[in-house]
Amino acid sequence: MKKFVVVTGGSGYIGSHTIVEIFEKTNYEVISIDNFSNSYEEAYDNIFKITNKKVISIQCDICNQKELFEKLLPYANNIHAIIHFAAFKSVPESVNYPFKYYHNNIQSLLNISEFAIIHKISNFIFSSSCSVYGDIKVSPVTENTPLPLPNSPYAHTKQIGEQILQQLVYISKLPLKILSLRYFNPVGAHSSGLIGELPKYNLTGLVPNLIRSVLGKIPALEIYGNDYSTKDGTPIRDYVHVSDIARAHVLAMMKMDSITEKNYYDVINLGTGKGNTVLDVIQTFEKVTSEKVNYKFAPRREGDVEAIYANNDKALKELNWKPEYSLEDMLYSAWQWGKNRY
User: How much is the pTM?
Assistant: First the structure.
């Protein structure tokens, strides 16, 4: 009998890479739910080129509970796990349109988690974020670092999402195992060059815009802020390869299969444990590609934090996960993807 893993937002950046990992490392079929509001259905064709396996695609707005439940119902009895990626994720946009983010990110989580509980699907992985740590003053951060008031509505939706899921585990009378994975800054692309980061709008990430600037798609890369209290004045982030993050989801499913307790909830950081400034990234990109980056400084963006990077000891202990790719690997793979795409 076929067993399915449901991936919400499966045509997106991290979702598509995770589907590849599931196909290559397990025997599960994949059902992807997406409304393609900020991604492209062609990602599934490229997943097929990489894995020779087809995604079962359900086009659906997860915020529409009736539609979601009806379209997913035929598979309900054979779903092994749900991985919930689908969410709006731009920090600047969330500052400008907070209600859009609260509605979409929280309602979608409520709907898919309610489906899981109704149909006794006990394994659930939530796509969280290092943004839950807010403008933390000391790094590396551990999973036990107290969570301050978040810097943006996006980050707040991730805090709220974690709290909802923890509470559901606490009150559940049914077996329920949930892992919230806190990603740091995913970059890079699949080694095939067939899938990578390409949102339809809100292309606010550093590396995609760096590549667009080198390819002449935008006049220059804008660096938001050069007056931070860092070695060169630019923000520090923990950049981690998207394929490393994708691999962690397969390891998380294996972890859940080994858990004997009836109800389980935990959070795990996914980062390299090393912080790099924006100028570090630019210099490394220039080194591995021999391309020159044209950049200019711009004012700080509201919602951005100064510096954050992970303590990833727990990921090694609980998931047997550690990053395999260097910053050089991340940027070179992103460059190959960008050239192929543009």
Answer: 0.97
